[in-house]
Every structure is written in C-alpha cells, then in structure tokens.
Design brief:
Strand content: 35-45%
Distance between the termini: 40 Å
Shape: flat
Number of helices: 2
Oligomer: single chain
Structural class: mainly beta
Order of helices and strands: EEHEEEH
Radius of gyration: 20 Å
Helix content: 10-25%
Largest sheet: 5 strands, mixed
C-alpha cells in the first residue's frame, strides 16, 4: 500500500478584483494487487511536487482513536495513476492503471501518431454506440 497527498488548486478573481486561490489536499491510497503494482510504481517513480492524474473511488472511513474520539477520513482509492511529469521531464506522461501490470512504467514509449496505425482509421467498428 502507498499513500500520496495530492493537492488540487483553483484560482479566480474575487468581486473586488483581487486574485484568489484555494488549495485542497486529498489522501490517495494505492494498492498492489495480483493485476497491478500501483503502490510499487508510486514508490519508485513519484516524488514530491510531481504532477499526477489519479482516478478512483472516494471512500469515507471512521474509527476510534486511543482517547475514544471518533475520527473521520476521506480517501481516494486509486485505480489509475498517470505520471504527468514523467520520468524524463515535464514533457512526457505515462499511464498505469489497475488492470495492467507495472510494465507500462518499465520503459518509456516512443511517441505514436495516427500515421503509425493506418488500419485504425480504415476499419469500421459496428459496436460503437454513435
């Protein structure tokens, strides 16, 4: 298991014309499973200040502390992690999701374009809902 603190910020101009900013912190929990090693990948490739995209489910938990007080926490149980900063710098991004094994982070992928897959644009897909 790995936990990350992820900040989200938003900026706006107030009624008086001054710029305002609000930052909120979110606790993200990543797990190693039979199908993915998100916790290992986060430990190996994420560092403070990196930009990441996290997708998952929000979970609310309560527990009793040593003094008997009820404590509450909100966590994001991460199922997908995209490293927006990338290992090679700010220009690259790597995606790792729960259904895949951590191989996606093992080697950087070359940039792919539609020209690399001409058959993708030629075939019809009758399963599309639109």
């Amino acid at each position: 298991m790995a936990t990350l603190s992820v900040a989200t910020s938003r900026q706006w101009t107030g009624k008086s014309g001054e710029k305002q900013e609000k930052t909120e912190w979110h606790r993200v929990v990543l797990w190693n499973t039979n199908f993915s090693k998100l916790a290992d990948i986060a430990e190996k490739f994420c560092k403070k200040g990196d930009k990441v995209y996290v997708e998952g489910a929000i979970e609310y938990r309560t527990w009793q502390d040593r003094e008997g007080q009820t404590r509450y926490t909100t966590e994001i149980n991460g199922r997908e992690l995209i490293l927006l900063s990338g290992r090679g710098g700010a220009g690259s991004a790597e995606s790792i999701s729960a259904p895949t094994v951590g191989a996606a982070a093992a080697a950087p992928k070359k940039d792919e374009a539609f020209e690399d897959f001409p058959e993708a644009l030629d075939s019809e897909d009758d399963d599309l809902p639109f």
